[in-house]
Description:
By secondary structure, this protein is of the alpha+beta class. It is 40% helix and 28% strand. The strands form 3 sheets. Strands 3, 4, 5, 6, 7 and 8 form a 6-stranded mixed β-sheet that branches. A hairpin with a 2-residue loop joins strand 10 and strand 11. It is flat.
Amino acid sequence: MNRLERISSILVQLQSRSVITAQQIADRFDISLRTVYRDIRTLEEAGIPIIGNVGVGYSLVDGYKLPPLMFTREEAIAFLTAEKFIEKMSDLQNVQSYKSGMNKIKAVLRYVEKDYLSDIENNIGILGKSDTGRELPTAITQCILKSISEQKVMHICYSTNQKESERDIEPIGCFYSQINWYLIAFCKVRNDYRSFRIDKISSFSLKDEAFSQQHLSLPQYIEKYRLQEHIYEVIIRVKSTDLIVINDYKYYHGWLKEEINGEYTDIHFRIFNIEHFARWYLSFADIADIIQPDILKDKVKDQINSLIHKYKLGSVE
């Protein structure tokens, strides 16, 4: 990227955010802070009204931009959700191209919508990859994100095992994993964080009641429960010639990526239910090895021994 292209891109970055720091610009373009300051000065000399606040960052004078594109919030959320999917499910070049396009769209949004997207960006996530799945309904998405943005309690009716219960919840975000969308929220009935499958929420509304406390962000929640082993990182090793056996089903079990290892392929998964995964693994265990975690090996042994005991055969050590 030449200097003219970089300066133009910095202008797009300034237009796409309400505030951006010199360090963020330096990281984005892999340049020094001194170069950032020089490029900002070039933009100022060209008549771009940049405001620089020490300890805060750079911003443009409100109103300086192309005429704002009148996207609705629903459209803006659709762009953001699509960006999350593309980050996880496409190649690097396509991801970079989409991000570049998104920055240009954000650059001409009104400040209120720009701030809204910045506020909710970390409240939508994708865990793993999938080639199919359920849609994320627009109406409940709006309600969830409005609840998070305004820190207002949501009331939901939730169906589990053919029983319906009413809950007051304080959402922290929604994410997509395998083939379902999930809502993570602090449940005031259970007095703890709970995950809710969004397709099982039959009705919802926003209450005029403030959150009872400050909550974790969605990435913080996911990392916390991953460290507590509520989320498992699994690696299965299969001969590359045998991949066809599981290719059609891996997307339903938290598939993340694959790495070639000689004549073998290491398949990475991120899962919540170790028991369910162990049962699936048994369907192709003769052609695959478990690299990690050890708890999965133990679960598989338990299930094999249970079958052996059932049919009075012997045991597996």
